[in-house]
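Q: Hi! First time doing this. I have a protein sequence and I read that you can turn it into a structure. Is that right? Here it is:
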Amino acid sequence: MLTKSDLLQILTNKGIDFQIHNHKPLHTVEDSEKLRGNIDGAHTKNLFLKNKKDEFFLFSCDEKAKIDLKRFSKSIGAKNLSFANEFYLQKYLGIKPGSVSALSLLNDETNKVSFYLDENLTKNSVINFHPLVNTATISIKTEELISLIVENKKKINIFSLENYSIVKVYE
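A: Yes, that's right. Below is the predicted 3D structure, encoded as structure tokens:
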């Protein structure tokens, strides 16, 4: 599994422009708003979900987004979604609670996790995520994040919270 330093080395080797912001551990959106300081770009909340069939989903959305989990579940055809526990976070994403991030998909070697990215996030030039730990925030250009994830053979479903549907897919 990749570590923060592995991830930063990958980004550097690929020539991806990013900024790293170190801070105290952030476990919630509320922690982030209070403690992160002034960091430009869209800030995210990330929901790692599973259903009773042991199918896994990561939904990255704007930190202020209101999500109707039942409606989201129905719209993607995944009944009975609930939050996945710490065991699955470590097993599939190689991270601890509070560190969930689209970048953790790079640890999903078997492509077990389906990824959904809030359409509103894609309208920002820069997105902020945890770089596999919750003691830092990484600012990365949206287009570079999308390219990195697709390059690593991860499908990205761009999801509209306005009409609860997939509006675009990157493969």
